[in-house]
Write a structure and sequence with these properties.
Layout: H1 4-28, H2 34-47, H3 49-62, H4 72-98, H5 108-112, H6 114-141, H7 161-175, H8 177-199, E1 215-221, H9 228-242, E2 248-255, H10 263-268, E3 278-285, H11 295-313, E4 316-321, E5 332-337, H12 341-356, E6 361-366, E7 373-379, H13 381-387, H14 391-402, E8 405-410, E9 419-423, H15 427-430, E10 440-442, E11 448-450, E12 455-461, E13 467-469, E14 472-481, H16 488-500, E15 514-516, E16 528-533, H17 534-564, H18 569-574, H19 581-591, H20 597-626, H21 631-657, H22 667-725
Parallel strand pairs: 15-16
Antiparallel strand pairs: 1-3, 1-4, 2-3, 5-14, 5-16, 6-14, 7-12, 8-9, 10-11, 13-14
Length: 729
């Protein structure tokens, strides 16, 4: 579009800017990883904007007839000087749009930090390169093929097709107010329809999408007290259903012990699982390039197939996928607090049933052990003293019967080491406490007394673990989201409706359950619940991104007010920001993608690009009006001249973002940048000139009316003065 010489000049700025950005990463201690590389890819589409604007303006000035007799050096300096101030302001607007994202807190803060830092540094260096390297390269390359003072020989060259198309479309719209209002109304309607996609659930909101990994785990929890053999049998039956999946490469079963460390298990504490009632199936899939289904789809199919087996055994089974971002205890985590731990357990039991009855909520579990029977041997000290038997002797006999005791070593010539001799009752006898009543104890007189004469058996329930968080006792209820609902946002909205009607045990005067999102309750005097897990991260990220976006708007508004010295012009420029949603949200719907945190980042960065182009456009309109051109012609001419570099910037953003379009995590970022930039090119580049023309036209009319009013008042005062000073004849 620009020509091969112009393209070389633009391309020269890219390696210089990237080298400086990589140096910034090095000085800040960032490594080259997936996030920093995507930050560079994300920046490439933006950093070429400054060189494109500079080169295009230099080429345009070289083709102007009035520059025929001027030197190439002088024309180049003039062309860069014309756009220097708005270019600096526009670049600062883009930097102001992305840098506040560096202040996102929580688990996602360090995860996202390289993106605003890298893109902000790239834009700053791009601006410096565009005013130093680009003019030098343009003077050396673009003007060398022009001999003497004939570099203005392009005066007869016609405008390109994009400029002619813009003039042809915008001319009637600007000159006819009715068409302007129809265009703005249609654009506003399209934006409302796009926002309705989120309200109706056609586009779902999620912190991060599901990643396409080559593994997942099946976590098995039997009731406490289940034997190792029973747990192994459940695991074997589950694998019979898993191995039928064509994407499954192999699997390993770990019963009564933990599976090897992985990213998921470190936070969910799977490495601590070593009880007989616990098992873990590690499922490995074939390489993602050799299968059509993503790992999440395979996991959903496996979950549906194993549910009948799980119900038959009464087990609790969870299909745990590798999290795409910061790991959490579970997708849905409800922390139950209250004044009494027994009441907390009862409330947690009822909330667990609410989880199970909510569509889309799967793998429901809680961090409470099942009741385990306990038999206490209560000694009768009176009878023991009559027989002369000490309490220590009774305890030692019970210990020998249950746990056994080493009484010596067997020296066998066939063994490499001595074999310990352990005295212990057979499993059949020691598993029944009643059978131990007949075990004899020898008195000092040599008589045998049965154990049942000296002890009483008291049956009860073993003590259970009590979990604490921030020194407060808590009961955890966990769940995952799959099937009908893939995002925890909508599952929690449905759960909150049911919890609003829930009457917790221990509530005073029937008060509802207190629900917290970001912090634990200060006091446990009332029953309360806090949402944690992925919802906590999602809420925190979108809250911080929303706050960052509000700061972005204030910074951009302050910058534009300082430059244009007007409170109205910045509002006109910023009015185009929401229009990018007309492309972003339908594009997410068309591709079946979640609107994620990276999508929000792309929207914020796109807002900076939209404001940048609008600043340059409005500044060019003011320049044309200052030169004496009528307002309508100035608006059309400025838009037509600036449309081609804006189109080139949009193309650069689309091409640069297409590299990460099919990455599971950063797909939302790519969609927001690509679709948002296309929508901005087609809508905001027309909406901003139209709104600016309508506002300025109305202002000029009001100013003319004020001037006419002032003139009429002056004439009336002159006539009154003349009548007062005239002597009647």
């Amino acid at each position: 579009v620009l020509g091969w010489r112009e393209s070389i000049v633009v391309a020269l700025a890219v390696p210089v800017t990237l080298a400086l950005t990589l140096t910034t990463f090095y000085l800040l201690g960032f490594t080259l990883n997936r996030i920093t590389l995507f930050a560079l890819i994300f920046s490439i589409g933006i950093l070429v904007d400054d060189p494109i604007v500079g080169v295009e303006n230099i080429v345009r000035h070289l083709r102007l007839p009035e520059n025929r007799d001027r030197s190439a050096r002088e024309v180049t300096v003039q062309a860069i000087n014309e756009i220097l101030s708005p270019l600096i302001l526009a670049t600062l607007a883009v930097i102001a749009a992305v840098v506040p994202m560096a202040f996102v807190g929580g688990l996602m803060g360090p995860y996202m930090l390289p993106i605003p830092i890298g893109s902000g540094a790239a834009m700053a260096f791009s601006m410096i390169v565009s005013v130093i390297v680009t003019p030098w390269a343009a003077h050396r390359i673009l003007c060398r093929h022009v001999s003497g003072k004939n570099h203005g020989g392009h005066e007869g060259e016609a405008e390109d097709w994009s400029t002619r198309l813009y003039r042809r479309v915008m001319g009637p719209i600007i000159r006819q107010t009715r068409l302007s209002l129809i265009f703005l109304g249609a654009t506003s309607g399209a934006m409302v329809i796009a926002l309705a996609l989120i309200a109706t659930g056609a586009v779902t909101v999620k912190m991060l999408p599901f990643d396409n990994k080559s593994e997942f785990q099946v976590i098995i929890d039997m009731d406490e007290g289940a034997t190792l053999e029973q747990t192994a049998q459940v695991a074997m039956d589950l694998t019979a259903a898993i191995r039928d999946e064509p994407e499954v490469l192999n699997y390993q079963i770990y019963v009564g012990t933990a599976s090897p460390y992985n990213f998921n298990g470190l936070v969910r504490h799977y490495f601590l699982r070593n009880s007989p009632h616990e098992a873990d199936i590690q499922v490995n899939l074939i390489h993602k390039e050799d299968r059509k289904s993503q790992s999440h789809d395979v996991a959903k199919r496996v979950r549906d197939k194993i549910q009948p087996i799980v119900k038959r055994y009464g087990a609790s089974v969870k299909v745990a996928e590798v999290p795409p971002g910061p790991p959490v205890l579970q997708t849905l985590v409800a922390e139950i607090y209250g004044p009494n731990y027994d009441q907390q357990i009862e409330n947690a039991r009822q909330i667990r049933e609410i989880f199970k009855s909510t569509p889309g909520v799967v793998d429901v579990d809680w961090y409470m052990e099942a009741n385990q029977p306990r038999v206490l041997f209560r000694q009768d000290h009176m009878k023991a003293a009559i027989h002369g038997i000490q309490a220590e002797q009774i305890s030692q006999v019970v210990k020998i019967c249950q746990a056994g005791m080493e009484v010596g070593l067997l020296h066998d010539a066939t063994e490499s080491e001595d074999v310990p001799i352990r005295v212990q009752l057979p499993l059949g006898q020691r598993s029944n406490a009643t059978s131990l009543r007949s075990v004899p104890l020898v008195t000092p007189q040599g008589n045998a007394v049965p154990l049942g004469e000296l002890v009483k058996l008291e049956r009860g329930v073993s003590d259970k673990s009590i979990h604490h968080k921030n020194l407060l006792p808590v009961v955890y209820v966990t769940g995952d989201v799959a099937g009908a609902v893939e995002s925890p946002v909508y599952a929690i909205l449905a759960l909150n409706k049911k919890l609003a009607e829930f009457k917790p045990v221990g509530a005073v005067n029937g008060e509802p359950l207190e629900i917290w999102n970001t912090r634990v309750p200060f006091s446990t005097q009332k029953p309360a619940m806090k949402w944690d897990g992925e919802w906590h991260v999602t809420y925190e990220v979108f809250r911080d991104l929303g706050a960052a976006f509000a700061v972005v708007m204030l910074l951009i508004y302050a910058l534009v007010v300082g430059w244009f010295r007007s409170f109205t012009t910045p509002l006109i420029i910023m009015s185009a920001i929401p229009l990018s949603l007309v492309g972003i949200l339908p594009a997410h719907w068309a591709m079946g993608a979640f609107f994620t945190a990276t999508s929000m980042i792309g929207f914020i960065a796109g807002a900076g690009i939209v404001v940048r182009n609008s600043i340059i456009l409005v500044d060019f309109i003011k320049l044309r009006v200052k030169e004496g051109m009528p307002l309508a012609e100035a608006v059309i001419d400025a838009g037509a001249i600036r449309f081609r570099p804006m189109m080139l910037t949009a193309a650069a953003v689309v091409v640069g973002s297409s590299v990460i379009l099919f990455d599971p995590i950063f797909q939302g970022l790519a969609i927001s940048l690509m679709a948002g930039e296309v929508a901005s090119l087609l809508l905001s580049r027309m909406a901003v000139p139209i709104i600016y023309y309508l506002v300025m036209k109305r202002r000029s009319v009001n100013e003319d009316e004020d001037e006419d009013m002032d003139m009429d008042m002056d004439m009336d005062m002159d006539m009154e003065y003349a009548e007062a000073t005239t002597t009647p004849t």
